[in-house]
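Incident log, structure service

09:12 report received: a user says their structure output differs between two submissions of the same chain.
09:20 pulled the input from the user's history:
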Amino acid sequence: MSDYHSLLVLTNRFSPHGGRPAGPDTARLTCVDLRLTDPKAIEALAERLTAADHPHQHAGTRLTTYDPSGNPLRFSVLGSAKPAPRRDT
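09:34 re-ran on a clean worker, output below:
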């Protein structure tokens, strides 16, 4: 098999930048878990978010931030601890 790299692109086409989070009784994105293969990638992401003054929580090989609509984006290292439990709010 040749070297294959997938590209994941996430978009929210129903709520523009600055949109309000979907209500609890509507179909909505509740969370995105992204697994990275290199612990250094988590560190680099944390550094970029800090430089951009974007709020995030970083602990070891886990990082959580939120998109403009309030959807949680959770990053962790593949093979490390399981992703955090869902928080449906």
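09:41 both user submissions now match this output. Likely a transient worker issue. Closing.
09:42 reviewer note: Residues 39-51 form the longest helix (13 residues). The first strand starts at residue 32 and ends at 36.
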